[in-house]
Amino acid sequence: MDEQNRGAGLIYHPDYLVHTQERHPERKERLDHILKTLREEAPPERIRMIEPVPATAEEIALIHDAGYVRSIEDACQRGQQFLDMDTYLVPQSYEVALLAAGGALAGLRAVMNGDCRTVFALIRPPGHHAEKNRAMGFCLFNNIAIAAAAARQEYGLERVAIVDWDVHHGNGTQDSFYEDPAVLYISVHQSPAYPGSGQVRETGRGRGEGYTVNIPLPAGSGDADYGLVFDRIVVPVIDAFKPELLLISAGQDAYYKDPLAGMALTYQGYYEMAEALAAAARRWCGGRVLLCLEGGYHLEGQAGAVLHVLSAIERWGLPLPERSPAREPSAAVRRLADEIMVVQRRYRQL
Fold it and tell me: By C-alpha distance, which of 252, 264, 261, 263 is closest to 301?
């Protein structure tokens, strides 16, 4: 890729702010804070804004049933306010959700066509909990799953990897590819926590067995714990798979101040995870990385984490204002990593 294309693409549209509910944790201020932080602290010459268009019905149907898609549209037209206890609607939510999925697709096309090496899709509503026929966990359409399916269909890719570091397990993404050996899904999440899925022995089914990797960390896990499982499991599994494209479900809710979780990641932890994945992407897929925003509900913390994730991937060299205390991974996480490696060695050499 030539030097003029070495920059991070940002997918954004002001309509992403229309789907919002005051006092709900998944509200428009999440994007406001990210954009403000990037405008103030990111090198402007290394950012390219990309405006998305709505996904088509055919593109949504790569993951979701047509009847389910119509049900979301109908619910918005009726003025329905909630789909479940957590997942709200406003009258425009259907159109915004199409635009969110379209944002993931715009990011996919930008990295695959060589316009950018890295794209961060600043999209909402988020997507990784959305199942084939069910909205849940603030999610309507599964943006990253749609992008992964489109990568296979549009570009003929044979190996797509998804790493999900959101603090909550991406049950919808896992279900979308649970029987598919062409899509590797790796989730590092808090357990026990919503939605209750993502245990070690959930490894796929049929031809897809071995292509789902779950790393359910205990509450309180921090930078050293995440570093251990990335070094011993996440990166070696990616290297064994040799993906042609790397997607990241980038939820920043494992940040230590997040109000909806109980993890202890700092900016340093996010930086190091992103740095490790960017290096793997350079080894196997020309550095192509698409990140899709998922959770993250401490406004300043989420924004700072996004900034330092991009700094790591794009090598901006920004200073880290927060550094975790030097400590070793916990004994519980060491035991968990050993257990996961025993399971994963059934499928590949680690």
Answer: 252
Residue 204 phi, psi dihedral angles, 5° rounding: 110, 175
310's CB contacts (< 8 A; 6+ apart) are 8, 38, 42, 118, 120, 274, 316
Work out the burial of residue 278: count CB atoms within 10 Å of its CB; fewer than 13 is exposed, 13-18 middle, 19 or more buried. Answer: buried
Q: What are phi and psi of 157, to 5 degrees?
A: -70, 140
- Mutual angle of helices 143-155 and 93-112, in 10-degree steps: 40
Mean pLDDT value of segment 135-155:
98
User: 126 with 211: CB under 8 angstroms?
Assistant: no
pLDDT in tens, 65-104: 999 999 999 999 999 999 999 999 999 999 999 999 999 9
Task: Spot the catalytic one: 19, 129, 189, 308.
Answer: 129
| CA distance linking residue 253 with residue 52, whole number of Å | 25
What φ, ψ does residue 272 adopt, rounded to 5°?
A: -70, -35
DSSP-assigned states of every residue in 104-156:
HHHHHHHHHTTS-SEEEE--SS--TT-BTTB-BTTBSS-HHHHHHHHHHHHH-
Supply φ then ψ for residue 48, to 5 degrees: -125, 120
Q: Is 298 considered catalytic here? A: no
Q: How would DSSP label each residue in 171-219?
A: HHHHHHTTT-TTEEEEEEEESS-TT----TT----GGGTTSEEEEEEPT
Task: Look up residue 62 and give its two tokens.
Answer: 């790569």
Per cent of the chain over pLDDT 90 is 95
- Residue 322 is predicted with a pLDDT of 67
Sequence-separated contacts (24+) of 44-47 with Cβ below 8 Å: 45/7, 46/6, 46/7, 46/8, 46/314, 46/316, 47/7, 47/8, 47/10
Taking residue 56's Cβ as centre, other Cβ atoms within 10 Å add up to: 12
Amino acid at 271: Y
211 backbone dihedrals φ, ψ, rounded to 5°: -105, 10
Which tokens in the block code for residue 216? 């359910």
The answer, as to whether pTM is greater than 0.85, is yes
Q: How far apart are the C-alpha atoms of 100 and 88, rounded to whole Å? A: 16
